[in-house]
Amino acid sequence: MNYRKMGKHGLKLSELSLGSWVTFGGQVGLDVATECMTAAYDAGINFFDGAEAYAHGEAEVVMGKVLEKEKWRREDLVLSTKIFWGGKGPNDTGLSHKHVIEGVHAALRRWQQDYVDLAFCHRPDPDTPIEETVRAFDTLVRQGKVFYWGTSEWSAAQIREAHTIAKQGGFTPPSMEQPQYSLLVRDRFENELAPVFSELGYGTTIWSPLASGVLTGKYSGGKTPKGSRLAMENNGWLKELVATPANLAAAERLEPLAKELGCSLAQLSLAWCLKKPHVSTVILGASKASQLKENLGAIDVAAKLDDAWVKRIEKTVAG
Ligand code: NDP
Q1: Which pLDDT belongs to residue 28?
Q2: Which of 49, 65, 200, 272 holds its CA 20 to 30 A away from the CA of 190?
Q3: Tally of structural domains, the chain
Q4: Domain CATH code at residue 286
């Protein structure tokens, strides 16, 4: 495993990490989560990504149970939560001072931890002044309950505003963004956000690097394998979003390149992410430990990808 600095900050993240959206506490239970997290930890993955929204909090409960059982050294782990969708009440969502503080406290109880290393604003909140959110996260950092705070799917302007407010007010500024980024979703990351990442020394923890599995090739030819994410009844919206004819065709065009490299399409797609500037860690998702083990092979594939390969892959996706 290689470890990367989170932007300009001192924290080191394993370049591949493991998340829990859809999977832990929902699609799979404690046994499979234990297998996946153990395979990840054994390979040197140190960052495990949670959110109050994932399986209504159950994902963090499951990951907390695995940590309790495995007794890994806390210093070897980087744990996160994301705050925004905490429940049904009027103060259970968004980024108000009240919900940020209560949401992080609830996440700590689910994780069974005294602190999380990273806490993200899961989305921007149009109902709350950014200053209120900055103050709330600053309080948590000063109390030692959160070590670094950041944003997810914020615009460049919102990130800059949060940073300026923090600097002017003497508050802890945000340090990282969690954006979507993959061979199929590039525009915002590369064109809108990359300049801000450079300017502020931001780290990034990128999500859905396989576009929910489309970039494994498993949905190619219009197939929807039983038990897969896009076969799940409540994921019709996601299927519509990611399994578009254009995306499926791009995945099919990439298959011969993976063959030429002697790797799977998932490994090629993840290796491409590892080669791109500003990526601190690529968050993997897995519903089986075998997927995780396969995906770890992306590190060796990335070592083979020179600039010419990266360009060829991008040209192939563009069609
Ligand atoms: P991916 O795009 O990599 O999708 C992961 C899914 O693809 C797996 O659960 C599995 O689904 C399938 N898969 C993965 N590897 C393989 C393989 N080798 N062969 C076949 N199928 C495979 O990542 P996610 O969408 O899960 O995102 C990763 C993490 O990012 C999340 O867990 C979460 O922590 C974070 N995230 C953050 C968001 C945000 O708003 N900040 C939003 C979304 C995610 P299956 O087996 O069910 O088909």
Answers
A1: 96
A2: 49
A3: 1
A4: 3.20.20.100
Six token digits for residue 62: 């499951």
- Any atom of ligand 1 within 6 Å of the Cβ of 21: yes
Query: Shortest CA distance to 269 belongs to which of 248, 247, 254, 285?
Result: 254
Determine, yes or no, domain membership for 49: yes
Flag whether 250 is in a domain: no
By the 8 A CB rule, do 53 and 20 touch? Answer: no
Could you tell me whether strands 116-121 and 146-151 are parallel, antiparallel, or unpaired per DSSP bridges?
parallel
Give backbone dihedrals phi and psi of 185, rounded to 5 degrees, phi first.
-135, 95
What is d(CA 246, CA 252) in angstroms, rounded to the nearest whole number? 10
Residue 254 covered by a domain: no
User: Which residue range forms the structural domain that includes residue 123?
Assistant: 3-213+277-306
Q: Best mutation site among 123, 208, 234 for ligand 1, i.e. most ligand atoms within 8 A of its Cβ?
A: 208
- What confidence tens digit (pLDDT) does each residue in 117-129 have? 999 999 999 999 9
Q: What is the DSSP letter of 115?
A: -
Domain contains 268 = no
pLDDT of the residue at 222: 86
- Judge whether 54 counts as a catalytic residue: yes
Ligand 1 atom, smallest distance to 211 CA: 2
Query: 57 near 26, Cβ under 8 Å?
Result: no
Are the C-beta atoms of 165 and 159 separated by less than 8 Å? no
For residue 225, give the ligand 1 atom closest to its CA. Answer: 48
Cα of 319 from ligand 1 centre, angstroms: 24
Which residue has tokens 């995945």? 251
Measured by CA distance, the residue closest to atom 37 of ligand 1 is 207
Distance CA 250, CA 255 (A): 9
